[in-house]
Specification:
- By secondary structure, the chain is an alpha+beta fold.
- The protein folds into 2 domains: 109 residues, Alpha-Beta Plaits; 99 residues, Alpha-Beta Plaits, CATH 3.30.70.
- It contains 7 helices and 10 strands.
- An 8-stranded antiparallel barrel has the order 2-4-3-10-7-9-8-5, surrounded by 4 helices. The chain has a two-stranded antiparallel ribbon with strand order 1-6.
- The chain is globular and about 50 Å long.
- The protein starts with a helix and ends with a strand.
């Protein structure tokens, strides 16, 4: 009997140890390689749409629809001072992103949500993230700085991404309030730089300094300025 009890105790201890290891691993940031990032911005209809109602429904959509689609990794929603929303979704492949959007447009379960969106204001673009990135959990109220642009015609994608990586390492990641920076590019040659900040003050301070910092001047010169668009959203 004593032998049986000892074996049982050892088994229980091993199970507890394994659970501890599993939980620890689950709390670590997920590392994904060459994933797709889908950025959709829009405004809700000016009449008949309550912001609280819409945001609650948005949270439901994430749990009940998007998170259940094949290839889904992560979804982030936010709103800016102009009342424009952004939905940022990470997918494993382009095919997964396209399949989800196709289903979304015809799925009756999300029709009420779609009906609250002002269609003409909706813009969507997908980009591929090069290399590996850790996908981290963000607190509500985090600032998502979304910047899109083209590089100048004489600048190759490889050269630009190399310079971009240096900016991340030597400048942006060292700024107060910095959380994470993600760069991506699509087949049209459009670039996306997505930076998460702890607060809007940190984001604005970094950009003000960035425009006058000589260490990033060569990078800035690579950007086709007229194509550049930037917006800050507070995550929901």
């Amino acid at each position: 009997m004593k032998t049986i009890k000892i074996i049982a105790l050892i088994g229980a201890a091993m199970s507890l140890l394994n659970c501890t290891k599993t939980n620890k691993a689950e709390n670590q940031p997920t590392v994904m390689k060459d994933i797709i990032i889908e950025v959709t911005s829009f405004k809700t209809k000016s009449e008949g749409v309550n912001s609280t109602t819409f945001q609650n429904r948005d949270a439901n959509i994430q749990e009940d629809f998007t998170a259940k689609q094949p290839g889904f990794i992560k979804r982030i929603s936010g709103i800016n001072d102009a009342g424009e929303y952004v939905v940022i979704v990470y997918w494993k492949t382009m095919a997964d992103a396209e399949a989800s959007m196709k289903k979304f447009m015809s799925d009756k379960s999300v029709a009420d949500y779609a009906s609250m969106i002002d269609g003409p204001t909706m813009k969507m673009a997908r980009y591929k993230i090069s290399g590996e990135k850790k996908l981290i959990d963000l607190k509500k109220g985090t600032i998502a700085e979304v910047t899109s642009f083209k590089a100048k015609p004489d600048i190759g994608t490889t050269a630009f991404l190399k310079s971009d990586a240096n900016v991340e390492k030597n400048y942006t990641s060292k700024q107060p309030g910095f959380i994470q920076r993600i760069s991506a590019v699509n087949e049209k040659g459009d670039f996306l730089v997505l930076v998460y900040w702890q607060d809007i003050a940190s984001a604005q301070a970094s950009m003000k300094k960035f425009m006058n910092d000589k260490s990033v001047s060569s990078y800035v010169k690579m950007i086709d300025a007229p194509t550049m668009k930037m917006a800050h959203y507070k995550t929901l």
